[in-house]
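Journal club side-thread
Mid-discussion, someone asked how the predicted structure for our own chain would compare to the paper's figures. Pasting it here so we can look after the session.
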Amino acid sequence: MSEINLSVSGMTCGSCVKHVTNALKSLDGVEDLVVDLAAGKVKITRTTDKSDDLIAALKEDGYPAQLDSGGAPQAKQGGDCGGGCSCS
């Protein structure tokens, strides 16, 4: 098992968390994932260390992501998150 940590931009509400979760949980080898809305982070437990498909799935859903280098959390973007939710 590998643990992959991503920084995800554009998450602003519970609906965003649901979109991100749904985009990732169906991908091959994803065993578990935890979304931290406040920090803009996602921790994925997976049978492989491959991350490019995770990042592509999030980008396709409107949430730009990158491997988390362990730095300071990115500032959240307010509203209009692009994930199809009804943020205001």
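Post-session note: Residues 72-79 have pLDDT under 50 and may be disordered.
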